[in-house]
Write a structure and sequence with these properties.
The complex is a heterodimer of chains A (272) and B (368).
Chain A (H helix, E strand, L loop, with lengths): L11 H18 L1 H4 L13 H17 L6 H20 L9 H12 L1 H18 L7 H17 L6 H32 L18 H51 L11
Chain B lengths: L11 H16 L4 H18 L9 H21 L8 E9 L8 E7 H27 L2 H6 L6 H29 L7 H29 L10 H26 L9 H19 L14 H23 L1 H4 L11 H16 L6 H11 L1
Antiparallel strand pairs in B: 1-2
Helix pairs in contact in B: 1-2, 1-4, 1-10, 1-12, 2-4, 2-12, 3-4, 6-7, 8-9, 10-12
Classes of the chains: A mainly alpha (272), B mainly alpha (368).
InterPro entries (chain A): ECF_substrate-spec_UCP037395, ECF_trnsprt_substrate-spec
Keywords (chain A): Membrane, Transmembrane, Transmembrane helix
GO molecular function (chain A): transmembrane transporter activity
C-alpha cells in the first residue's frame, strides 16, 4: 500500500460495513425497480426511506472514523469540504455548471477511497448547511457523491501523468451521468407519481411491471428531463476542469498529503 | 418556569423533530385541505418564531420550491396525460411518439381528474419540502452541528472546520490578488487561472495544517481507547443492524416476502444500528462549552410535532376516505386532522420567541 491510501484507513470490518450500507442505500435508490406488490393495491412512495437513509449514512461515517482521525487529515477534510461547498454555491450562477465533482474526484484519487467517501458526504452536507438547503434529497445526494469520491480512490494506482488525467476525465464523465441517473431514479416516483390502475399516465412508474418495461420508461424520462441538459453540462464541466486544472491541483494535493500523512517514531537513544 | 420562555434560541434538534413530525403527517395523506393546513401551521410558526439570522430567510425559498414542485407535477400530467378517464376539460390533440420511446403519447384530452391527481400528489411532496424548510429557517445550523452524536465527533469537527473556514477564503483571495498585482506573470486565460488557484489552495491547506498542529497541541484526538472486546461489539452491532436494514428494505418492497421480515426487521435493524452508534460514541470523552440545555419548551415543541405525526398516521390508517380522498368529490377533514394541526401549532408556539438583535440589546441594557 502506498502512503497516500492511509488518509482514512479502511479495515476489513469498515469495508464490510461500507459494502452493506451501500447495498441498503442502493436498494433505497432503485426501489421502483425492486417493488413487487399484489395487483390493485395502492402504492405510495416510501417516505420511510427518507428517514432510514440518514441512519445508514451515520453508521458508515461512524465506522469509518471509528479508530479516530488524525487532526491533520481532519483539517484537510474540513478545508476541502469548504472548497467544494464554495464551488457548489458558485456553480448555479455559472449557467448550471456543476463544479462539485472536480475536486471530489481529484481528492479521492490522492487521499484514497475512505477519504473520498467521507469527503463526498461532508461536502454536500456543508454546502446544504451553508445555503440552508437541507431537504429530503440530501441523504441521497450525500450517498451518491460519497460513492463518486470512493470510486475515484479505487482507480488503479499505478497510472501517472497523462494516463492518469485521461482516466480521471473518463471517470468524471461516467460519474456525472451515473449521479444524474441515480438521483433521477430516486426522485422519479416522487415527482411523477405512481401509476394508478385504470388511469393511464405515461412515463409514470408502474408498480409490479416487468423490470425491462420500467427501465425503458425510466430511460425515456431521464433522457427527456436531464441527460440532454444538466448531466451533459456536468460531464463536460468535469472533463474540462480535470484536464485543465487537474495536473496542478493533483500535485498540490499530493504535496499536502505527504505533509499530512508523514508519521515518525521517536526511538529512545542511549545518552552518551 | 418563566426563564425558559425568555427570548432565546430553542435547541435546534427540537425544531428538527417538530418539523419531521409535520412532514411525516403530510406523507400519510393526499387530502389537499390537510396539506394546506400543515403548510399554514409551518408558515405561522416560522413567521412568529424565527430569528433575524441569515438562515431565517430561507423559508421563502422552500415555499417557492414547493410551488415549483406542484406546477411541474401538474404540467407533467398535462403533457403526458394519456387517457385518464373523467370529465374532459380541454380536448388537446394527441401526439404519439415513435415506438422506441415506450409508446408514449403527448398531450391528449385533459381531464379534471388527471389535473386533480397531479395537484394532490404534488401538494404532498411540496408540503414535506416546506416542513423541512421550516426547520431550516428555525434551527441554528451551527448549534445543530454541536449536537452531533459522539460517534460522529470527528465528522462533526470537520464540518465545523468547513463552515468556519469559509470567510478565510475571501481573505486568501485578496492577498493573492494583491501579491500578483505587483509582478508580471502568465497572461493567458488558463495560465492566470493556474496562477490564481494554486496559491489559494496552497494557502488554505497551509492554514489547515497549522490549525491541526494547534488542535494536536491542545489535546485533540486523545480519545479514550476502547478495549478490543468493546470494539468488536461495536462492529457486530453495526454489521447486524445494517443486515437487518437490508433485509427489511427488500421485504418492504417485495410483498411476497414474509411480513415478519418487513417492518419488524427494519425496526430491529434501526435499533441495532443506534446501539452501534452509542457504543462507538463511548470512545469519545469531551466536555461541552456552554451546552444547549433541554428545558420544558423544547420537550413541548417536540411533543407537538410528534403528536401531529402520530395523528396523521392514525388518520391514514383509520379514516382512509379522509386521508386519501376520492377525486370526484370535495375532500373533507375530520376532527382528528384538526386536532393534529392544533397540536402542531400549539407545540410550535410554545417555543420562546427567538433572540433578535433588539431582544439581545434589551437584555444587555438590563444587565448593564
Amino acid at each position: 500500500m502506498s502512503a497516500t491510501s492511509r488518509a482514512v484507513p479502511l479495515s476489513r470490518r469498515s469495508a464490510a460495513v461500507l459494502g452493506l450500507a451501500s447495498l441498503a442505500g442502493l436498494m433505497m435508490l432503485v426501489w421502483p425497480l425492486l417493488l413487487r406488490v399484489p395487483e390493485g393495491t395502492r402504492v405510495d412512495p416510501p417516505f420511510l426511506f427518507l428517514v432510514l437513509l440518514p441512519v445508514i449514512v451515520a453508521v458508515v461515517l461512524a465506522e469509518v472514523s471509528e479508530g479516530g482521525l488524525d487532526p491533520r487529515v481532519l483539517a484537510i477534510l474540513g478545508v476541502l469540504s469548504a472548497v467544494n461547498a464554495l464551488a457548489r454555491a458558485l456553480s448555479p450562477g455559472l449557467a448550471g455548471v456543476e463544479l462539485v465533482f472536480f475536486l471530489l474526484v481529484l481528492a479521492g484519487r490522492v487521499f484514497g477511497p475512505g477519504f473520498g467517501f467521507v469527503l463526498g458526504c461532508t461536502s454536500l452536507f456543508a454546502s446544504a448547511l451553508m445555503t440552508a438547503g437541507v431537504g429530503p434529497w440530501l441523504p441521497y445526494q450525500m450517498l451518491v457523491s460519497a460513492w463518486v469520491g470512493m470510486g475515484a480512490g479505487l482507480l488503479p494506482r499505478r497510472l501517472r501523468g497523462r494516463a492518469e488525467i485521461a482516466a480521471l476525465a473518463v471517470y468524471g464523465v461516467v460519474a456525472a451521468y451515473l449521479f444524474g441517473m441515480l438521483m433521477n431514479l430516486s426522485s422519479w416516483p416522487f415527482l411523477l407519481g405512481v401509476y394508478v390502475p385504470g388511469h393511464e399516465s405515461s412515463l409514470a412508474f408502474v408498480p409490479g411491471a416487468p423490470l425491462g418495461d420500467n427501465l425503458r420508461t425510466f430511460g425515456v424520462y431521464t433522457l427527456l428531463t436531464s441527460t440532454g441538459g444538466w448531466d451533459t453540462i456536468r460531464a463536460v464541466t468535469n472533463v474540462v476542469a480535470i484536464v485543465v486544472l487537474g495536473p496542478t491541483v493533483l500535485s498540490t494535493l499530493r504535496r499536502a498529503s505527504r505533509r499530512a500523512l508523514v508519521t515518525g517514531e521517536i526511538a529512545a537513544r542511549p545518552v552518551l | 418556569m418563566r426563564a425558559a420562555r425568555q427570548p432565546r434560541d430553542l435547541h435546534p434538534v427540537a425544531w428538527w423533530v417538530w418539523a419531521i413530525g409535520l412532514a411525516a403527517a403530510a406523507s400519510f395523506t393526499t387530502n389537499p385541505f390537510t396539506l394546506l393546513l400543515l403548510v399554514g401551521a409551518a408558515a405561522l410558526v416560522v413567521t412568529l418564531r424565527r430569528s433575524d439570522q441569515p438562515w431565517a430567510g430561507s423559508f421563502r425559498i422552500y415555499v417557492w420550491l414547493g410551488v415549483a414542485i406542484v406546477v411541474i407535477r401538474v404540467l407533467f400530467r398535462l403533457v403526458l396525460g394519456g387517457a385518464y378517464p373523467g370529465t374532459v376539460l380541454l380536448d388537446l390533440p394527441e401526439i404519439p411518439l415513435p415506438d422506441a420511446a415506450a409508446g408514449i403519447v403527448l398531450l391528449g384530452p385533459v381531464t379534471r381528474e388527471a389535473l386533480l391527481a397531479g395537484l394532490y400528489d404534488g401538494l404532498r411532496l411540496a408540503t414535506i419540502v416546506i416542513c423541512i424548510g421550516a426547520a431550516n429557517a428555525l434551527a441554528n445550523p451551527k448549534r445543530l452541528l454541536r449536537s452531533v452524536p459522539p460517534a460522529l465527533y470527528e465528522i462533526g469537527t470537520a464540518l465545523v472546520v468547513a463552515v468556519t473556514v469559509l470567510p478565510q477564503f475571501a481573505d486568501s483571495v485578496r492577498r493573492v490578488r494583491a501579491a500578483q498585482g505587483l509582478r508580471a506573470g502568465a497572461t493567458g486565460r488558463v495560465g492566470r487561472l493556474h496562477r490564481f488557484l494554486v496559491p489559494v489552495l496552497e494557502d488554505a491547506i497551509d492554514r489547515s495544517l497549522a490549525m491541526a498542529a494547534g488542535m494536536d497541541a491542545r489535546g485533540y484526538g486523545r480519545a479514550a481507547g476502547l478495549t478490543m472486546a468493546e470494539r468488536r461489539r461495536t462492529g457486530a452491532l453495526m454489521v447486524l443492524g445494517l443486515c437487518g436494514l437490508c433485509i427489511g428494505t427488500y421485504a418492504v418492497l417485495d410483498s411476497t416476502a414474509p411480513r415478519v421480515l418487513a417492518a419488524p426487521m427494519l425496526v430491529l435493524g434501526v435499533l441495532l444500528a443506534m446501539a452501534g452508534l452509542l457504543s462507538a460514541g463511548r470512545r469519545v470523552e469531551r466536555s461541552r462549552y456552554r451546552a444547549d440545555r433541554w428545558q420544558w419548551p423544547e420537550l413541548v415543541v417536540m411533543a407537538g410535532g410528534l403528536g401531529a405525526g402520530v395523528l396523521g398516521w392514525w388518520v391514514g390508517e383509520q379514516e382512509i376516505t379522509i386521508a386519501y380522498p376520492d377525486l370526484v368529490a370535495v375532500p373533507t377533514v375530520s376532527l382528528a386532522v384538526l386536532a393534529g394541526i392544533a397540536l402542531a401549532v400549539a407545540g410550535g408556539l410554545t417555543a420562546p420567541p427567538a433572540a433578535t438583535a433588539a431582544s439581545r440589546a434589551g437584555r444587555s441594557a438590563v444587565f448593564a
